[in-house]
Specification:
The protein is an alpha/beta fold. The chain has 2 domains: 158 residues, 3-Layer(aba) Sandwich (Rossmann fold), CATH 3.40.50.1370; 155 residues, Aspartate/ornithine carbamoyltransferase (Rossmann fold). Helix content is 40%, strand content 14%. The chain is built from 11 helices and 9 strands. The strands form 2 sheets. It has a 5-stranded parallel sheet with strand order 7-6-5-8-9, with helices on one face. The two termini are 28 Å apart. Bound molecules: N-carbamoyl-L-aspartate. The site of N-carbamoyl-L-aspartate (NCD) has 11 residues, from helix 2 and helix 6.
Length: 320
């Protein structure tokens, strides 16, 4: 694998290799040895055309823990036409010798364009493109689910996972539906009809318009942010009504299975898709998702540009 643009780029075995490598890296990060020499001398560029806090910082932490040099390129606000500005930026990064470019862009398909035109030689990693995909978010979500419910082993067969809310605008939902199903889980998409994309019936997931119909049978409930910045029209009558019909509140948490977990990719709209009780409940693994993101992104960088397989990592760990 050369780039990571979509979950479709990964076979089930590729995905499991990333998760297994992340498990090993997480174990190492817990010990006193938090820095690995693996990517010394390599340059990783964070190319962010859209706002981001956790994803950018997470990739930066991941690259630094592997000893790579990191350049943060915040390209937001450029007024040059998109195709051209992307090309010019890419040529600059190529001149700097970027081994990996982590790109977030408001336009769906921008990372694929960067990769396909090969304006740069380095690996292209999609950190969220428009409403299309966010593959490392799905990988860190799968890692978190596997850690809590499958003891870090194997796939997610037998699990039921609900993805609730603004599916229409969510690249996190798209990548998660692809990955969770690839790993054998059953996925429920729960949203008002106005927040479901055309063609969603072909995604393979079960569609529900009521969270209360599915919440008690799910092993994980993944809440999505209502993406107000991508909404030009009115998609629901009022925030109050949305919160009442689709928000994760204390009563709904109480209806969940004892072992079930609550997830959210962040940033949260507290009081809209999730109440404070939901976000801070014992079932919430939201803060852990952030920590797991670093291990998963380390694994992706390691496997893409470390010139290694997870087996080499086992050998390296053995030497410590
Ligand atoms: C997500 C994103 O940017 O797509 N956030 C993230 O990466 N942590 C989800 C969101 O913004 O709602």
């Amino acid at each position: 694998m050369r780039d990571l643009l979509s979950i479709n780029d990964l076979s089930k075995d590729d995905a499991l290799e990333i998760l297994d490598t992340a498990v090993q890296l997480a174990a190492l990060s817990d010990s006193s040895n938090r820095k690995f020499p693996t990517l010394r001398g390599r340059t990783v560029v964070n190319l962010f055309f859209e706002d981001s806090t956790r994803t950018r910082i997470s990739f930066e932490a991941a690259a630094k823990r592997l000893s790579a040099d990191v350049i943060n390129f915040s390209a937001k606000g450029s007024s040059v036409s998109k195709g051209e500005s992307l090309k010019d930026t890419a040529l600059t990064l190529q001149a700097m010798g970027a081994d990996a470019v982590i790109i977030r862009h408001g336009a769906s398909g921008a990372p694929a364009q960067l990769a396909r035109k090969r304006w740069i030689d380095g690996a292209v990693i999609n950190a969220g493109d428009g409403t299309h995909e966010h593959p490392t978010q799905a990988l860190l979500d799968a890692f978190t689910i596997r850690r809590h419910l499958m003891q870090d082993k194997g796939d997610l067969a037998g699990l039921k996972i609900a993805i609730v809310g603004d599916v229409l605008h969510s690249r996190v939902a798209r990548s998660n539906v692809l990955l969770l199903q690839k790993l054998g889980a059953k996925v429920f998409l729960v949203a008002p009809p106005t927040l479901l994309p055309v063609g969603v019936e072909h995604w393979g997931a079960q569609i529900n318009f009521s969270i209360d119909e599915v919440i008690s049978e799910c092993d994980a409930v993944m809440m999505l942010r209502v993406q107000k910045e991508r909404m030009e029209d009115l998609f629901f009558p009022s925030e109050r009504e949305y919160a009442r019909n689709f928000g994760l509140n204390a009563a709904r948490i109480a209806a969940m299975k004892g072992s079930a977990i609550v997830m959210h990719p962040g940033p949260m709209n507290r009081g809209l898709e999730i109440t404070a009780e939901g976000a801070d409940s014992k079932k919430s693994v939201i803060v852990e998702q952030v920590a797991n993101g670093v291990s998963v992104r380390m694994a992706v960088l390691y496997l893409l540009i470390g010139g290694a397989t997870s087996r080499d990592l086992t050998a390296q760990i053995g030497e410590h």
